[in-house]
Amino acid sequence: MEAVGPGTCDGGDAALGAEGRPAPEARVHFRVTRFIMEAGVKLGMRSIPIATACAIYHKFFCEIDLDAYDPYLVAMSSLYLAGKVEEQRLRTRDIINVSNRYFHPDSEPLELDSRFWELRDSIVQCELLVLRVLRFQVSFQHPHKYLLHYLLSVKNWLNRYSWQRSPVSITAWALLRDSYHGGLCLRFQAQHIAVAVLHLALQAYGVEVPAEAEAEKPWWQVFSEDLTKPIIDNIVSDLIQIYTMDTEIP
């Protein structure tokens, strides 16, 4: 019944197709995780449950070939399951209606007919499949709490003018959110992702950490001693691939 494949969790070159362009599978996952994020917002989900839904989706397709199951059905079940994991339970009816409106913007809410109940049963059955494939390991350590701590530390290091004149914080949070379009959360440690998006946000606005040149080690290594520049570069490279897809996919 299941088609277990090599998965797409390696990222980097593994997610690239011909001529260094994102592979077709990566483009599908980008579209579907965009659906998860937009549906999650419309369902009133907080950022952590949405991140968990994306992580569940990516982890499932690390184990299963993309063409084995409908990715959007897996996405809907991921939303449903993430609501349970993060204690923000959702009703299947709400997930179905929001999803229907996403794909058919001008449509009315579905009636409680056979089509609705079939879709509801599919979501519940797919949730059980996801749990079995992932061996019930659906809890994740997200970078959010680390990023919050790191932002507060960097804010204290910088002078008030440098911090206020550039939206480093907003940009770092946006980079973190967008990272879930790909499987970074499965390939890198949460602390490393948090530092990398902060590093990129600081670079984007030309903000330098004071006394960086005189310090014994880079500022980012203060937050995570096992972090190296190549790891940061790999995370940033994966983020660039995500934004490349964003410009190419309607």
TrEMBL record:
Tell me the Gene3D superfamilies matching this sequence.
Answer: Cyclin-like
All copies of domain Cyclin-like, residue ranges:
34-132
Native species of this protein?
Tursiops truncatus
Annotated function? Activating cyclin for the cyclin-associated kinase CDK10.
Q: Which family does the entry's similarity section mention?
A: Belongs to the cyclin family. Cyclin-like FAM58 subfamily.
Q: List this protein's GO terms for biological process.
A: regulation of transcription by RNA polymerase II
**Name recorded for this polypeptide:** Cyclin-Q
Which keywords does this Swiss-Prot/TrEMBL entry list? Acetylation, Cyclin
Q: Name one GO molecular function term.
A: cyclin-dependent protein serine/threonine kinase regulator activity
